[in-house]
Amino acid sequence: MAHIDNLVERIADPQLRTQLAEEVAKLVDRKDFGLVFQRHRPEDVEVPGVRPRRGDTVRRRSDAGKQNYLVIAVADGQAAVVAVDAAKRTIEGESPTSEPIEQLVVVKDFSLPIYPGLQLLSAFTPNGDKPPHVVIEGENYYALEALLYTHERKIDVIYIDPPYNTGSDDWQYNDRYIDKTEAYRHSKWLAFMERRLVHARRLLKDSGVLFVSIDDNEQAHLRLLLDDIFGQENFLDTIVVELSTTSGPKTVNAQQGTIVKNVEYVHVYRKGEAFDSVRHTPLFDSVPLWDTHYSLWLNDDGTITDFVDELAGDPEVWSDIERFGFVHSRGKKAGTFIGIPAMDKLLAVSDAASRFVLANLVRIARLDNLPASCRDMDAPIRGWVTVEADHRTYMLTRLRSGTVNQVYSLDRNYRTSDDYTPRFARTVIRGDLWKGFYQDMGNVSKEGGIAFANGKKPIRLIQQLIRWADNRRDTVVLDYFGGSGTTTHAVAAMNAADGGHRQSIVITNNELGRTVSDRLRAERHAPGDDAWEAEGVFRKVTKPRIENAIASINGGLTGSSASESVAFFKLTYEDENLVALGRKFAAVAPLLWLKAGATGEIVWSIGEQPWALPEAARYGVLFDTSQARGFGDAVSERSAMLRHIYVVTESESAFQAAVGYLPPELRLNTTRLYSDYLHSFEINGEG
Description:
By secondary structure, the protein is α+β, with helices and mostly antiparallel strands. The protein is about 30% helix and about 25% strand.
């Protein structure tokens, strides 16, 4: 731009020079740097089961071409519709037609607000203050909008495994499969991801973290998009995960000189600096080879001798050394133990040597750099002492050269590893190269007992990401591309292992793959038919897999005796006018329960009483503000058990008066219905 500025300055006419300078400045202000892509607005989705209303956009259920129509009128089970273009303008020459309502499917445009509800699909038993896992079937963009009402800034960890945009029909945009022939494949994918990631960031706590699995098709584009949404300063790392080896069919390609794909990636972003205050749990990989630096032996009397001499001095170990031929065959050392160079082979064949090492981890040691806090301290030559510095204990020794070193014992590097098969062994702290997950992939099809051909991730991967990021026992984990159900399985298994109260929230649609949908259309089925819906990912994979996993973890226990429970919901689209009139309370009820912490019972109905305050619920609802004083007294008796209060009223003054009767500790956790709900979704339509 400096060159353009110089050219502008050379223009003789001052008025023209000024006008051009102003226009250049406008271009500079508008120019995007970094990732530039077409955002393809609006995005939309078909919602079978929703009754068309005047002004809605609809399609014929049987129309694979996806032509949009505008509903002009609805009466007697028929809808008067007219064909419209992408801008919702009537197509020239098209006349209104009458269509049976049951043959139409409503199309929701993301630029317009929706008013969601949740339909409980199967009963669950509340388990005290331990929340159930939540699974929502529905369009994830709209489900995220629903969660903005219930969970804004409440999520600790988000893990997603989105479609990789490989060009093999692995995802849909505007209900159309995207393949390699799509000219705007990459920009549509970025637009699709951006809308959801913006909502995801709002859902995270200030201390929250996002993990996104991806492969080479979009990982570079995704990194730039995440930089834009979360800020470059909040990028933590890109983890490289080894998910396969060069074996089977890949061997042929590799032998022909092709570099075969063995890894995928996980981009890691924090919400902000508060994430750094959360304690992160390091992960450990076992190290199969002996570290040759461990050559010292720490005697109880404070002297230091050679480890190999002590090892060879053990009768059982010496027997194996001789039996397997780990001795010098000639020269002055003939018949003596080869020593450190033979340790790997000796430990591989000698149980006695392995037992000796494990029994003496605190005595086997190596030299290490001297900590700065110990620089003025002394130690004996060929001896060791313990010292205190910076509230830590160190062991020091002095070399014959006079240099003081730290002595580092082997027990500090022996831990239970986080490998596929955990073992107590020498370990190193894992970095951003996560090896060995190809072993999990060999068995991933068995996890949950349900086959899933489109890239299940191993349970161990998700568990270890959560453990590293936030291993608190009440962590809330969200996955809004949850088709395989692995995240719920992983979090439930973590709870079973340590008695935690972690909660997973998983969102998935009930989408079909292109091959299956083509077959069903050929059989004259359409979205919304039982035969069609039965083949969707939620019904065929997510729900049965999670049910299997929870049943297995609970060991046959059910009801309140079970350690883990799950609530399955279907996202619904409600009429805002009926919500405002209080005629859709049952649809909104699960959202109120989620907003109140998702423990205890759901308050389902208004009933005949002026308020609802069930014994097993953790929130209450006041329906008649004229009874606010009595409601306040009832709440006071149970205030220790309650987390949230809802007051149904159109009047702000009546709401404030009702709040005044509540215990002080609950006044900040009080919500006005239905204005708060309606306003939340009016401002969330993004497009």
